[in-house]
User: What shape does this take?
Amino acid sequence: MGGKQLLITKKRKLMAFAFFAPILIGIVLSAFKASGDIKNVTIIANDQAYHLTTRANFVSEALKEANIEYDNDDMILPPAMATLSSNEVITVKRWSKEVVEREVIIPSNTIVLKNSRLRVGSEVELKAGAPGIKRETIEVETLDGKVIEENTILSQIVIKPVTRKLYVGTKSVGNTSRVINMVATAYTAGAESCWPYVDGKTATMKKAGYGVAAVDPRVISLGTRMYIEGYGFAIASDVGGAIKGNKIDIFMSDVNSARSFGRRHINVYLLD
Assistant: This one.
């Protein structure tokens, strides 16, 4: 009987300890926390800086006080369980992974074929090229919105690219004294190009027309015969206020042709 009573007494003591132990631990931890030094902490998260004055002893406690949530995938520096120091800067970087689809342009290739019937610098397109489209399924990992890694899961060509075929001339333009790489533009005889000189006459009094080019006489003498890539034969017959140095202005019959020619780098062959 006495042994049974002793066993009951021990059970009651254990039950009392189990009941009061969490309370005592909480009191001790609260006292430990309250006894911590006051610390000024800066938390950088969600593209903002939070300033906190706290008695927290650990990084995780400071984050909780600032109502900043995080999960196990996020990067926290110093780590959440690290001891908190005064003037600590805590950085929380958000990590995420998602699967996305995107379309990628596949550039077209060009096959160049030499043609001895075409003049040097001339080109004839046999077949127009066109880019293709590739659809990719990728797994993207980001840290604070910045991509840190991409892995392609699936890649499928939706539209095949079309190869461009081009004839390039190799036929000689004749005897040349010099070849100059120049910046070429185009002009017309109208007011849009020549105002106020709209009488259709060039600086050499030659009538403006196909085969007329404006040059800087210090680079190419007026009257020089030339072969111009992408244009043909011409004579240096005109000048222009903006035509200085290695620039050449080529006559076109209409505004649309002049605008289509645009501005490009070409070789100009000076003929003997």
The domain at 176-271 is CATH 2.40.40.10 (Barwin-like endoglucanases). The mean pLDDT is 85. The CA atoms of residues 94 and 144 lie 5 Å apart. The chain has four helices and 16 strands.
